[in-house]
Write a structure and sequence with these properties.
The chain has about 50 residues and is mainly alpha-helical. The protein is built from 3 helices and no strands. It has helices at about 1-5, 10-30, 45-50. The longest helix has 22 residues, at about 10-30. The protein starts with a helix and ends with a helix.
Length: about 50
């Protein structure tokens, strides 16, 4: 098993970086601040300041 890891170490490293980049990309795209929340409290801007 250790011999396999030594042989393909660079491939595992590249694969890990790609998986990490994909996870970060999905998290960034899923955070859409301008969208309407599915659940939550809707606050009108006019009512906040009087």
């Amino acid at each position: 098993m250790i011999a396999v890891l030594q042989k393909y170490r660079m491939l595992f490293l590249i694969l890990a970086i790609l998986v990490l980049a994909a996870i970060i990309w999905v998290v960034i795209l899923s955070r859409n601040d301008r969208s309407i929340p599915m659940r939550g409290v809707f606050v009108l801007k006019d009512c906040l300041c009087g």
